[in-house]
Amino acid sequence: MSRSATQKALYALLMQHPRAANITVWPGTSVIVRKLDGTQVVVDNIGLVVDCTGRIQAGMKWLETAGFSLPDNLRCTYKPNIRYATLVCQYIHTQHFTYGLSVTALVKTDNNTMQVMLTSSEDNLPRSVPEILPFISTIRGHAPLASWFVETVEILCENCNEPSFDIIKIPEQSCVKYHSVPTGALPSNFIAVGDAHIQLNPVHGQGVSKAMLNAITLNSLLHSIDSPVPIIPGDFSVRYFKENAARTKGLWDATRLHDYGSLSCEPMAGETRDNGRLARWFELKLISAATQDEEVASVLWRVRNMVAADRALLAPTVLWKALWTRSLF
Fold first, then answer.
1. Which is nearest to 213 in space by CA: 164, 159, 255, 250?
2. Taking the mean position of all CA atoms in its chain, how far away is CA 24?
3. How do residues 221-245 score in pLDDT, each as one tens digit?
4. Which partner from 12, 238, 311, 316 sits 20 to 30 angstroms from 39, CA to CA?
5. Which InterPro entries match (predicted)?
6. Edge to edge, what strands does the sheet with 91-94 contain?
7. What stretch of H or E contains 93?
8. Nearest-CA neighbor of 153 among 117, 124, 125?
9. pLDDT tens-digit series, residues 55-99
10. What distance in Å separates the CA atoms of residue 37 and residue 195, rounded to the nearest whole number?
C-alpha cells in the first residue's frame, strides 16, 4: 500500500473510533490555526503539543521562541549523500557497502501499478524511459541483477505510457536528542513524533516502524495517567523522550552505522566511517546465514520488522550459525 493510501486508511479508522466525536481536525501549525476558509483561531489551554513537522523539526524553534534554553549539540546529523528515483509504471537487490548505498527494487503497489526504485550517490538517475535500461546496465554489485528483473523492466518501458518520475536527493539525516535535555528544561506537555524527532535514511524503510514506536510510547504514557481529571503530569515530556529513546535509539544507530559503510557518506561530527565496522561485518554474516538457515532468516526478519528485540540476534544458535556461515559478500 502506498504512503498516501496508508494515511487515508489510518485517518478513516481513527474517525470511526467510538470517541471520534471528541476529535476536531484543524489544519495548521502552533496554537494559532488557520482554517481552510482562511480564518484564524487561537487555541487556548493546550493540553499536549506534538511536533509533527517532519524533517523541518520545528519543535526546537518553538521551544526557543517560547524561552526554553536548549543545548547547542541537541541535534546531530550526518549526510548519506544518496539520491533515489521511483518510477511508477517484489524484487529487491541490495549491494555490498563497497558499491555504495544502493538499492534496486521492483514493487507492485496499489491501483495495479508497478514501481521501480533506483538509487545512486551521483546525479545520474534516469529522467526518461530511454535512460532507464542504460542506467540499469551500469549497476554493479557482489551479484548480478536477476535476468527476469531486467526483462520485466524492458516490458514496462515498452508498454507503460508516460510513467511518472520522482527524483529525490535524500537530505542529511538527523536525531534531536530531547532525551538528553536536563529535567525541567522542556515543557511537560511537549513531545515530538516521527521525523520531527529522528529522521532515518528512507532507503532502509523504517520510517513507519519508528512512528508506530512513537505512538506506542505515547499511548502507554497517556494510559498511565492515574487521575480523575486528564491533566498531563509534570514529568510527562521527560518520560516520553527517555522511553522513546530506549525504543528508537537502535534504529538511529543501526541505519547510521550501516550508511557509514558507503564511501560517499559523510559521518556526523565526532565520528568516522570506521564507526560501526564490526556491526557491518556481523550484518553481512547474518544476511549470508539467513540465505541458508530458516531460523536465522526468521529471527532477522522479526528484528528488522520490530517484532523482536535486537538481542534476539545474539541467541546462541543464531550467533553460532552466523559466525560459522561463509559470507556471501
1. 250
2. 28
3. 999 988 777 788 989 999 999 999 9
4. 12
5. FAD/NAD-bd_sf (IPR036188)
6. 91-94, 103-109, 113-120, 83-88, 164-169
7. strand 91-94
8. 117
9. 899 999 989 988 899 998 999 999 999 888 776 764 445 555 555
10. 29
